[in-house]
Write a structure and sequence with these properties.
Blueprint (H helix, E strand, L loop, with lengths): L1 E4 L3 E4 L27 H20 L3 H8 L3 H9 L6 H11 L17
Helix pairs in contact: 1-4, 2-3
Length: 116
């Protein structure tokens, strides 16, 4: 869906939220992926990164091995784990199929709302 914005011209709806990496939206970016994120999208990515990190550690997988086994580019995996990118559904699905671990968060993503 396209939204026409007077300042930006045509842009994707929700596009501004993805202008910053998910890590930068965490309560404490240095604690990624352990620090919760107040943004629902960034929180979902954080949970995926946590689960993938643990799955790789449990299986003794390197980035290279995870890339070779899943068909996902090594740098894409590294960026996901570091919170520097917004992974697409196909990437998450390939990594989940390879590791055998459900990576997507269970149920709705809960976020903390700031008090205003």
């Amino acid at each position: 869906m396209i939204d026409f914005d007077r300042e930006d011209g045509a842009r994707m709806v929700g596009g501004r939220a993805r202008a910053r990496p998910p890590r930068e939206m965490a309560g404490d970016p240095e604690a990624w992926p352990e620090a919760p994120c107040p943004d629902a999208g960034a929180e979902a990515v954080r949970q995926i990164a946590r689960r993938l990190t643990r799955a790789m550690e449990d299986r003794g997988l390197s980035l290279r091995a995870a890339a070779a086994g899943s068909g996902v580019n090594r740098q894409a995996i590294a960026d996901l784990l570091a919170g520097n990118s917004w992974p697409d559904v196909a990437t998450v699905a390939r990594l989940a199929a390879f590791t055998g671990v459900r990576l997507w968060p269970d149920g709705p993503v809960r976020v903390r709302r700031s008090k205003q």
